[in-house]
What does this fold into?
Amino acid sequence: MNTNAQAAKADRLRILHGGTKILVLPNAWDVASARVLEELGYPAIATTSAGIAFSLGYPDGQHISRKEMLDVVSRIAAAVRVPVTADLEAGYGLSAADMADTAKAVVAAGAVGMNLEDVTGSTEDSLVELNLQVDKIRAIRKASGASGVPLVLNARTDIYLMPIGPAETRFERTVERLTAYRSAGADCLFAPGLTDAETIRRLVKTLGAPLNILAGADCPSLIELEKLGVARASTGSGVMRATLGLMRRIGKELMERGTYSSLHEGAIPFSELMGMLARHS
It folds into this structure.
């Protein structure tokens, strides 16, 4: 992909965050899952870092290397025509210079967007100091802009998801961080773990910027999220884990009952998958 075409895809993805219709992104973890979503008509593909890590035998939480993660992202970006935004966890580095290197690698992989978390581990003491996180975002913005493909940056805080700190101060601390990330150049702001409708509405109004919510069992429906003013909804590793759940049910049925009903229900025909993937081989 040439730089102009890639930059045009970045522009298209950025525009998708600004309309009245919510941008829905069921995250993909490989080429086949990305192609299925593209065939359904999704206007962009988001990857799941946890899903990709799981598929390669790693636990979530930056145990996979940047190269291994971006190798998969690159294959996905080359296989679909729509914009691809990559979940890069905390950026696979600790400094702003590391983030600049990651941004350049994301562009080289063919993606046009990037998720960036503000925790580097699985405990709340891994929360990145606010000023350093702001510097990281600025470095991504500068490095990707210099490359000719300004990445659509989705800046995330895990205050609700982990959760971090006293419950009564989470909203104010989330606003503080996400406002700073927006000022540093983030295009979209991500607050996973937030599921209360009124709090979501309040956050949308307070931020005055595109907000990404992690869709899940306890979350309002997509129709409700759109009414609340949410710009983007993603599923994280949810679709991948649901797929593995189906695999476990199939395995259990074969082992315990010796039947095949769950093997065939809803399966995409072999010939359809062959045709879907052959168009991009």
Remarks:
- Strands lie at 23-25, 45-46, 84-87, 113-116, 152-156, 188-190, 211-214, 232-234.
- The longest strand covers residues 152-156.
- The chain has a mean pLDDT of 96.
- The CA atoms of residues 94 and 139 lie 12 Å apart.
